Amino acid sequence: MPSVEIVEVGPRDGVQSVPTFIPTEEKLRLINGLLDAGVKRIEIGSFVSPKAIPQMQDIAEIISSLGKREGVRPMTLVPNLKGAKLAVAAGMKEIIFVISMTESHNQSNVRRPVAQSIEELRALLEEVDAAGELRMRVDLSCAFDCPFEGRVPESVVLAHIEKIVAIRTGMELGLCDTTGFALSSQVRNLFGRCTHEFGDQAGWAFHCHDTAGFALANVLAAYEVGVRTFDASVAGLGGCPFAPGATGNVATEDVIYLFHRMGVDTGIDLERYLDVCGIAAGIPNGVTGGHVRHIPRTRIVSSIGGG
Ligand code: COA
Ligand code: ZN
After folding, report:
1. Whose atoms come closest to the Cα of 89: which ligand?
2. Residue 307 in this model has a pLDDT that exceeds 50
3. CA nearest ligand 1 atom 2, residue
4. pLDDT in tens, 146-166
5. What is the DSSP string of 154-183?
């Protein structure tokens, strides 16, 4: 049976823009519920400036309270070397470093030029290497569209990727539609060019938001050109505080349902997952999206059976 890998990003990308602080126990309830439903890769938060994103200030507590589970790969996002040092010190084994593909978004998000972020990656890898066996992912924000500069040319993204893989091969690179404006043709073309030009120098993942309602179509487009790792957020929770107008990620339950309908395994129990959607949807002042959680459960179950 063909399969894909879902990376649950709700506890980081979904939660970071919620204006009211979510108590740590509630975040842990959400994370544990997602893991109980079969999620294996999960972004549990970020090591960022508490002034920039106050919602993430309890990340160290989340890590220490989260028991180790066999086969589960928790990840934390870091915007700089300091974040990586904190993540390593907290015992994280998988780190996501974020670099925007446009100057204005990188400036708005992490307050430095793109070239400086790429140089910081070099220093960060030294830190990570010294800590032993860690996995690295680099999220390439605004790989298709930028809230300030509009459509991002493929050539710009490819030039940045060339510099990143020259620093290190073998990392996972996430092409991010941060604003949710990408067309499926852009998704197909960019992944096509990336895999053609950089082939096995990196692993590839797709991260998308649903601002214009294109997200699920774009997931399918990425799947059709060979992408097998997809970021998604529970109940479509989210938005980006540094990308005005962007809404949440594609809803994880919609992605699971789509793939299960297609006979593609995700390793996640959809019915159990749908129960967890209620936790995310109940977060005060959270903005949610998605479709599948509104469909009667019996209809979902019978349709996956081939009906
Ligand atoms: N974790 C925790 N604290 C951090 C930090 C990190 N990774 N990086 C910096 N800080 C602290 C500094 O210690 C300093 O604290 P102080 O004011 O108490 O001395 C403060 O944050 C400012 O540090 P500075 O290096 O001057 O950073 P900055 O103000 O230029 O902000 C970032 C840069 C990257 C730290 C900040 O913009 C940020 O955290 N952005 C988050 C981006 C993000 O997560 N976006 C969404 C996901 S894509
Ligand atoms: Zn995002």
Report:
1. 1
2. no
3. 49
4. 999 999 999 999 999 999 999
5. HHHHHHHHHHHHHH-SSEEEEEEESSS---
Residue nearest atom 13 in ligand 1 by C-alpha distance: 49
Which among 217, 169, 212, 161 is positioned nearest to 190, based on CA atoms?
Answer: 161
| CA distance linking residue 264 with residue 258, whole number of Å | 9
Do strands 5-8 and 94-100 pair parallel, antiparallel, or not at all (unpaired)? unpaired
Across the strands, what pairs with 41? 7, 73
E strand segments, the chain:
5-8, 41-46, 73-78, 94-100, 135-141, 145-146, 150-151, 171-177, 202-208, 229-232
Kindly state if the Cβ of 83 falls inside 6 Å of ligand 1.
yes
| Any ligand 1 atom below 6 A from CB of 110 | yes
| pLDDT (tens digit per residue) in 284-303 | 999 999 999 999 999 999 99
pLDDT of residue 240: 65
- Residue 246 pLDDT class (50, 70, 90 cuts): confident
DSSP 205: E
CATH topology of domain 5-303: TIM Barrel (3.20.20)
Cβ–ligand 1 distance for 53 under 6 Å, the answer yes
Please tell me the distance from the alpha carbon of residue 169 to that of residue 203, in angstroms, as a whole number. 9
Positions annotated as catalytic residues are: 240
Contacts of 143 (CB under 8 A, 6+ apart): 101, 152, 157, 175, 176, 177, 178, 190
- Helical H segments across 140-251, by residue range: 154-167, 184-198, 215-224
For the chain, what are the domain ranges?
5-303
Question: What pLDDT, in 10s, does the model give residues 200-211?
Answer: 999 999 999 999
Q: Is the CB of 141 under 6 A from ligand 1?
A: yes
The residue length of the chain stands at 307
